[in-house]
Amino acid sequence: MLQAIAWITFLEGLRNKAVYGITLLAGLMMTFTVALSSMIMRDVGKVATDFTLSSATFAALLVVLFVGVTILARDMERKTIYLALSRAVPRARYLLGRFCGLCLLQAAIMLLLLLASLATLLLVRQLYPSFFGTVSLGLVGLAHLFVLLQMWLLTALSMLFSLVASSSFVTFLLTTLTWLIGSSTQEVKQLIEASSPEQIAPVVKGLVWLAYYLFPNFALFDLKATAAHGLAISGQSIFFTLLYGTGYSVAILSLAVVVFKHKELA
Amino acid sequence: MLARGLIMPLLATCCGVALYLYALPLATVVKPQYEEQFALPATVLRVVTGQFKEISADISFLNALTWLGGTQTQPDTNRYLPQQYQWLHQTFENAITLDPYFMDPYYLMNSALIWDRYKVAEVNRLIAKGADTRTWDALLPFFAGFNYYYFLNNGDQSFYYLKQASKRSGGNPFYDSLASRVAYKADKTELAIMYLEEQIREAELKGLKASVAHLERRLELLKGIREIEVAVESYRKLFGSSPKTVNELTTLSLLPSIPKEPNGGSYYLDPTGKVRSTKDLK
Amino acid sequence: MIKFNDVCKTYRLDRQKKVTALTGLTLSVAPHEVFGCIGPNGAGKSTTIKLLLDLIRPDSGSITINGQSASNEASRAQVGYLPENPYIYDFLTASEYLGYAGRLSGMSTAAIKQRSEELLAKLKLEQAANRRISGYSKGMQQRTAIAAALIHDPELVVLDEPMSGLDPLGRKLIFDLIAELKQQGKTVFISSHVLTDIERLCDRVGIIVQGSLLYQGDVSGLAIPLEDLFLRVVAEAGISEVK
Known about the structure:
The complex is a heterotrimer.
Chain A (H helix, E strand, L loop, with lengths): L1 H13 L2 H21 L6 H34 L4 H4 L5 H37 L9 H28 L3 H27 L7 H13 L9 H6 L5 H28 L4
Helix pairs in contact in A: 1-5, 2-3, 2-5, 3-5, 3-6, 3-7, 5-6, 5-10, 6-7, 6-10, 7-8
Chain B lengths: L3 H25 L13 H8 L3 H18 L11 H17 L4 H12 L5 H14 L5 H12 L4 H14 L4 H11 L4 H18 L3 H31 L6 H6 L15 E3 L5 E3 L5
Antiparallel strand pairs in B: 1-2
Chain C lengths: L1 E11 L5 E12 L4 E5 L6 H8 L7 E6 L2 E2 L9 E4 L11 H11 L4 H14 L15 H13 L5 E5 L7 H16 L3 E5 L3 H7 L2 E6 L2 E7 L7 H12 L6
Parallel strand pairs in C: 3-8, 3-9, 6-7, 7-8
Antiparallel strand pairs in C: 1-2, 1-4, 4-5, 9-10
Helix pairs in contact in C: 2-3, 2-4
């Protein structure tokens, strides 16, 4: 039953025209990368990696915001959700099924983006072998995976938001803001910690600390610099990042289930 | 309590006022490109660009690169204007703040700013930081080390970084020989010649024709200076004082002929007895 | 089969305004019975159905299906629901939609195939079965939704305005379908404005006005036409607003 729900969600995403627009956009951005590489003098590989990974992140983000949020919002608005909930389908299972379907959709698109990225990078390496630098293609793959995990977490959040927001636009806004804030909480926290005590009021410190723990820390999932320069990455940090992502997702989805169970679908 | 129907128009009014107050000063003065740099502190940029900071670094750098490619130096001084250097400095610094591992800004900082003698101490400090960050790279410690000696007379830092360059390049003898010359407080012009020869060799390997031509001109200049310096030394040994003009050296046959100045200027001796060119060191 | 016991439901529109949808509704539908639920617009018919399906929750009172509480999703295993003005996933074809509906009810692929063919034929959707629903007319969408409600051969069929959007041909199809369900001994709960169909199909009828069940009785025992009864009951209730 969960598989059926996940599969239908996946199909809904695939058959959404926005997906084609987004993948086309990503493809264009990657082509642009090759042209851009000719301008850079020394760190060609790094710049190419930055562009391909950033394109992938941006495309994946668009999928969450414009496909994922739409699918959830439409289900509620058009009451197509009645089909499942008027049967012996527990609400939790429906929600999880939807979540799995969206994750599957993200994974499929990310696979495509990864292939495009690798193709682009291999081409750039072919064209400018001595300037490719210390890019690690293995880490590029890992970086894509981490973008995917990040989007899974964001999807869980968007589901929670869609259950409490009054319109799909509000959901879209909340999700976007959460992503933006979550991408910089780590940076701000480190800034605050590095500065001397007199400069920052304790209230500000407290708020930053709170924001850091409340909002998802997406910077943990950003491996762009690591992949672009072939920097070292510890297994420990990978493991704990995965653990963090899992814990946070479980918390959010459970909360979403609670909200959904009590929601009136008039 | 405001009636509900008034809140939106009032809000719109406030937004409109804020917008025109903001736009007015910007609209009245047309600023040249290099003055329109964002005054945001670099650390705020990191926060604002979030997960796109590396690509922002790339764009910032490309901005500087295209500008360099299109802008001419002042015809009389062969340099840019002070605010143009300031803008370049700011742009490069933004790029390396956003991505401290990015090589190109460091490289250009060295060639465009250091060799034009713009805020050498400050800029070299950034290059040294870059050398500390890019732990696998031998070129940056080489630049930093050379600059510390040639421009800043800091033998200790110079030696440290040149040794780093040697270590990271797997014991390249060139860096080693430079390091040892620094340790023995060798003549700077000689060091600069070695430096340039290495740069040219590297540029030729990578097929960077424009760079090679530029560097070769600089090398020729330094070789010319060196030639004259050697003649000046001979003069000092003979007469115990410094000569006044370069012609004196040729007259006394200490110098076979005055070397050709590659930028079209002429060599002269400054009051301290140093050999210089009328077209400043480029 | 269905039991509503003293069910009350109030909607909260915003901080101050409340709308009472149902007051002390007590209603029961016996197994194998075809029950017709009629009433003016906004009387609470759809609310009653949504409460039955646990889409909304009562403020007080209890609702059971075959003895199981409506809040337990297992109570809906044998329920087929057709919402009023149904929207269905327009990115699917009718076949895919029925396949999904079947899988939601735990049917096997073989069973789904067999039932789909049967229902698509009965509802004259075979030609369009492999076209995307986005290209269907309103009537075709309605018929697809009905098919989905019946795919798992449920014991209880809940139809909210089944004739809406259908042309006379479509109405005949559905009418015959409901008659067939009756023959098969299914329990059917119909909410409709088409009083003539209610008269012809239903065993019992209930009239809901302003959230209360003001009349219930056998159709066969009616002395006057249903429409007249309806108007009389509504007049007695003293409604001023026609929604």
